[in-house]
Amino acid sequence: MNDRRVYMDHIAGTPVAPEAMEAMLPYLGDNFGNPASIHHHGELPQDALFRSREAVARLIGAETEEVIFTSCGTESNNLAIKGVAFDSIGVKSHIVVSAIEHYSVLYSAKSLERFGFEVTQVPVDMMGRVDPDAVRRVLRPETALVSIMHANNEVGTLQDLSEIARITRERGIVLHTDAVASVGRVPVSVDELGVDLLSLAANQFGGPKGTAALYCRKGTRLWPLFHGGGQEDGRRTGTENVAGIVGMGKAAELTMEALPRRMDACRRLEDLLRRGISDHIDGIQFNGDPERHIPGLINVSFRYVEGEALLLHMDLRGVSVAGASACMSITAKASHVLEAMGVLGSGALGTLLFTLGEENTEDDVRYALDNLVQVVDMLRAMSPLYTRS
Amino acid sequence: MNDRRVYMDHIAGTPVAPEAMEAMLPYLGDNFGNPASIHHHGELPQDALFRSREAVARLIGAETEEVIFTSCGTESNNLAIKGVAFDSIGVKSHIVVSAIEHYSVLYSAKSLERFGFEVTQVPVDMMGRVDPDAVRRVLRPETALVSIMHANNEVGTLQDLSEIARITRERGIVLHTDAVASVGRVPVSVDELGVDLLSLAANQFGGPKGTAALYCRKGTRLWPLFHGGGQEDGRRTGTENVAGIVGMGKAAELTMEALPRRMDACRRLEDLLRRGISDHIDGIQFNGDPERHIPGLINVSFRYVEGEALLLHMDLRGVSVAGASACMSITAKASHVLEAMGVLGSGALGTLLFTLGEENTEDDVRYALDNLVQVVDMLRAMSPLYTRS
Questions:
Q1: Which chain A residues are closer than 8 Å to B243 by Cβ?
Q2: Which of A207, A224, A255 corresponds to the end of one domain?
Q3: Quick check: A93 and A144 in contact, CB under 8 A?
Q4: I need a labelling partner for B101 at 20 to 30 A (CA). Which of A331, A389, B303, B374 fits?
């Protein structure tokens, strides 16, 4: 129907930076060796792992040996949550998460109930913000872990983690943050945030799918999800995805350098799209914190239209955009995040999630906006509930 | 010191087949999308996942939906063992493994002791063979799982799994096999083996590191190691390593077609090297089953020399070969496999593990052999224990 394609779903994965892909190729070619090998073929892969670990550590202000490579953000979150929980089994038995965590945090925590853990969900306000005092109030002597995401992947809201960190530190409770949506989009420093564990994923900042990391502050104990040969200091054993890790390292390097420019570009495009939507479409509601959120993300609900129809028609017109949740598009469930924020209201409310990237242009934004206006008009024209205001 | 490089450590990872790498590239480029996305950018990755799953399933005679993609053989083994154990917690509490399993099986099983599981190790004979009757004898009503590897990764011995499968099936016990060392080297059929779970890794048959799979027979229940968004039918959730999976799929296709030729080539080269070693070096001992083992693998011990010195000097002369265990080279521990086989004997005994691949040539073998003869001579000349026979 349309040859033009505009990608505005960066939270589902960014394009791989050409430099990152370029860096990976030798490790799919001549440098295919196993970094565990102590002969010639192990040397270059070993060196490459070390340099990538340095680059990723630098990106988040960590020490090199505090970076554990994993296979995806979901694994990092599971390793953090189950790792702390299983390590503290018999000693502690309580986990605190927010109500708007990614499923890989929510369901990891929930899966621990069969091992005797109790999980408390702290609520969020209408902007998707966690009140640090709400965290303080639910802590118990038996609390092993608090996990509060840095930026929400659906509404983009950034949390005040340093305040939460002060509270958990005083009590010797491990603090994890899922920073998959924020690393590569805003500056992230593990020390400024004050966290003990932090998840990040390469495919959120120009690296390939299949590689991610968990920052693990020195002294933080984890029961490994994988037992075996002893790679990653025994915390995540298994033959490393060398090429993927090299791609992640290169993407981290590029991000270090490009982040201010990337944030500016995303903010500018976001403003353009946000204003366009406000100016041209009525019956809308922007979700998330308008002040503190990741640049380039717009979560917007439209009254009297269905989200799935919106998404489908935008796709037919060449605009790739997500429904309520980028990761869970395939299930098309109502967003637990918007529900927890109490902004779902009643009646038909279709939600779209635009996440812009630095390669998007103003022309892309105009193209998306024009089509959005037409699609919303068309769908509302078919709706018995809608009357033009 | 030397420009020539001969790679004879294929068990530590094969080179990536050029066709597999070629197939991956688009998914690191334009087709970078997330297969969970229901818009245009999700379509090609979704299709690619499906086709790769088909190819991997075909390689082992499984149904497409019985293939779960993971990130490495270690993950597959951990998912199998912990998956079955955690699923049966409170109902069953006993696991059986062989004494020569890969560490990812041995230590996964051992890690479950803190959850109340008991682990029984069945012994092997001097060839590294598990007696099916020995398995039968240790089974209990509370046995949840038996895990016996298909081919041992150090000595290459192939087990008689179908006989073991008959025993476990009768009793409703889940049977897992670590087939990481065998898939791609010998024909593997999940139905002929009779297993419920089977681990395989792409980097053993021309695919990239970072991608592996667990075959899971319909109806076999697993507690997932990762909880989250629901990918891989909830059994291994997390954004998929699309490019890696595509590489694995292509490598599986190539293997289907190339396996007879690959086996012939490896057997021929193995014979050449084995005979050369026998003819030119005394005080040696070949380890493993001379009849039933994976083609191209030679595990050989040399009296009066140290394994590490052997490996180092071979490396200096341009031959990449492993010590006792390819995966664990970095730790340089005595092999638990040779120990379990009771073939370590006393006194200095250096072991090398040659694993040949289809791209090796007769000239490679002659080069390796010439250098091996010289290195062994040189090291023995320095040994106070050795007297030429």
A1: 208-210
A2: A255
A3: yes
A4: B303
DSSP, collapsed to helix, strand or coil, labels residue B118 as strand
Q: How far is A57 from chain B (nearest CA, A)?
A: 21
Is A36's CB within 8 Å of B328's CB?
yes
- Residue A327 annotated among the catalytic residues of the structure: yes
Is this model's pTM higher than 0.80 or not?
yes
Provide the ipTM. 0.95
Of B205, B225, B255, the residue that ends a domain is B255
Residue A386 falls within a domain, yes or no?
no
Distance (Å, rounded) from C-alpha A64 to C-alpha A118?
34
Which of A31, A71, A108, A319 to mutate: most B Cβ within 10 Å?
Answer: A71
Q: Where residue B150 sits, what CATH number does that domain have?
A: 3.40.640.10
A326/B37 CB distance under 8 A: yes
Please tell me which of the candidates A230, A243, A319 has its beta carbon nearest to residue B209.
A243
Contact B40 A15 (CB under 8 A): no
Structural contact between residues B154 and A229, judged by C-beta atoms closer than 8 angstroms: no
Q: Are residues B165 and B267 in the same domain?
A: no
Question: Both B265 and B227 in a single domain?
Answer: no
- For residues B128-158, b (16+ Cβ closer than 10 Å) or e, as one string? bbbbbebbbeebeeebbbbbbbbbbbbbbbb
CB-CB under 8 Å, A40 with B34:
no
Based on the domain organization, do B10 and B22 belong to the same domain? no
Residues B185 and B238 in one domain: yes
Q: Does B6 contact A at CB distance below 8 Å?
A: no
Interval A324-374: pLDDT, tens: 654 444 444 678 999 999 987 655 689 999 999 999 999 999 999 999 999
Which residues from chain A sit within 8 angstroms of residue B32, using beta carbons?
13-16, 209
The alpha-helical segments, DSSP class H, found in B161-241 are 161-170, 190-193
pLDDT tens-digit map of A214-232: 999 999 999 999 999 888 8
Cβ of residue A194 closer than 8 Å to a chain B Cβ: no
CA of A273 to nearest chain B CA: how many angstroms apart? 20
Looking at the fold, whether B237 and B272 belong to one and the same domain comes out as no
* Boundaries of domain holding B179: 18-255
User: A60-89: per-residue pLDDT in tens?
Assistant: 999 999 999 999 999 999 999 999 999 999
Phi, psi angles (nearest 5°) of residue A7: -100, 115
CA distance B200 to chain A (A): 13
Residue with tokens 């890989």: A104
- Does residue B151 fall inside a structural domain? yes
